[in-house]
């Protein structure tokens, strides 16, 4: 199993979220990234 790709096959749900923040969203869009992560954590 390739952990980088095969984990998607066993995941119950996978969402893709695109934010316009460049390569490092934790530096260029931390507030938006935090909101997305919080939303994912709470479902």
Keywords:
0% strand; flat; 3 helices; mainly alpha; 43 residues
Task: Please describe the topology of this protein.
Layout: H1 7-10, H2 25-28, H3 30-42
Description:
This protein is mainly alpha-helical and 43 residues long. Helix content is 49%, strand content 0%. It is built from 3 helices and no strands. It has helices spanning 7-10, 25-28, 30-42. The longest helix has 13 residues, at 30-42. The termini are far apart. The model has no long low-confidence stretch (mean pLDDT 83).
Q: Can you summarize this structure?
A:
This protein is mostly helical. The protein has helices at 7-10, 25-28, 30-42.
What is the 3D form?
flat
Number of helices: 3
- Compute the average pLDDT: 83
β content, as a range?
under 5%
- Could you list the spans in which at least 5 consecutive residues all have pLDDT below 50? none
